[in-house]
Amino acid sequence: MSVDRPRPLVAGNWKMNGLRSSAKVLSEIHAGYTPGLKAKVDLLVCPPSTLLHVFALASVGSRVAVGGQDCHAKELGAHTGDISAEMLADAGATYVIVGHSERRQFHGEKDADVCAKAVSAHRAGLTAIVCIGETRQEREAGKTLNVVRKQLRGSIPVDSNPQNLVVAYEPVWAIGTGLTPTAADVAEVHALIRDELRRLVGKAEAPKVRILYGGSVKPSNAAELMAVENVNGALVGGASLGAADFLAIAGAYLG
Length: 255
Ligand code: PGA
Prior knowledge:
By secondary structure, the protein is of the alpha/beta class. It has eleven helices and eight strands.
């Protein structure tokens, strides 16, 4: 293992799921985040923003981080329904997901929008989890590497470094479908991302940036996916909604 290999991160993206009663799941995560797990892997929960502050308060002292799922590029202003990175930080978030495929697909976000959101995350002192990934059509047309390269170049701000940037590779066709790429396909894309990061953040810093895999990660496939070269953790949707599965995925790092 390289000395530069970053500490893994397992992040739960709750999407539009969770009510105040879901605090129970968070306490189960705290309870199951044993010293053995803490020694090996960082945990992050990204609940809907209505729960962010209460989750952040409940997580003080637990080493479970909380994060937002999206933010506006501006700090404040006339943007009804939007939330700024500063507001997320004020609520206790330390991370924010930007450019998730559901934002790109259903809210028309382009790479430049995602980049502006990542800039705003950095402005607010948050770590941006920048999501990229190809659609099924793009994969079938053999365009995966080109698509991922283009998204990466367009979505990552110039001031990025291993502390304020996490990249999440999430093939769109693998999200919520139960389908996953082969370990070889994941390795190929993550190697390309690492290579691109050398240009984007510099040769010395690139090995330290965490690159997560996301898309139908579950306890049964986590060990195989997390063992792939250049995979430094997971971004988990459906399987992060229950503490047992989420912790079992993180448990892949207990080896
Ligand atoms: P999934 O979602 O784990 O439910 O496939 C992953 C994601 O969208 O981040």
